[in-house]
Amino acid sequence: MNCVINLSRFYVCELDQLGDGEIVQITPPARPPIAVFRVDDQLYATDDTCTHGQALLSEGDVDDDFVVECPWHGGTFDIRTGEALSFPCVLPLKVYPVQLEDGKVYVDVLAGAVKAG
Ligand code: FES
After folding, report:
1. Distance from C-alpha of 44 to C-alpha of 87, rounded to nearest angstrom
2. Separation of CA 85 and ligand 1 centre (Å)
3. Residue 44 forms part of a structural domain
4. In a domain, 6, yes or no
5. Per the structure, how many domains does the chain have?
6. Domain for residue 3, yes or no?
């Protein structure tokens, strides 16, 4: 019998532990921290570290338009694509696939990719 273990899928939390408009940080082993967002009952995940400095976006604010604001200098990103939207942020974030299964939230921590140009 073959046994396949998916080592890239990281458990985040129960869905009901992440309220709408909230951000939670996960710290997968040997990987950079990832911010997981719930906005308008959709789930998204991006790099947690701002591309302008070392601020954590999970300590910032996300709005109903899927925009997270960095807590240090106010740069913004679209959490759906990772696109940098406003100065001083110009480089995009990686975004990660998020899965919801049996009320549990998971992130594929090895599948992060830059989607925005
Ligand atoms: S560290 Fe995020 S905008 Fe400067």
Report:
1. 22
2. 12
3. yes
4. no
5. 1
6. no
- The CA distance from 88 to 86, in Å, is 6
pTM (global) more than 0.85: yes
Q: Is the CB of 70 under 6 A from ligand 1?
A: yes
Distance CA 28, CA 12 (A): 10
Per-residue model confidence as pLDDT tens digits over 13-50: 999 999 999 999 999 998 999 999 999 999 999 999 99
> Is any ligand 1 atom within 6 A of the Cβ of residue 60?
no
- Give the pLDDT band of residue 2 (cuts 50, 70, 90): low
What pLDDT, on a 0 to 100 scale, did the predictor assign at position 115? Answer: 86
- Closest-CA residue, ligand 1 atom 1, reads 53
Ligand 1 centroid to Cα of residue 50, in Å, is 6
Question: What CATH code is carried by the domain that includes residue 42?
Answer: 2.102.10.10
CA of 102 to the centre of ligand 1 (A): 36
List the domain range (segments joined by +) for residue 56.
12-108
Cα 12 to Cα 38: distance, rounded to the nearest angstrom? 12
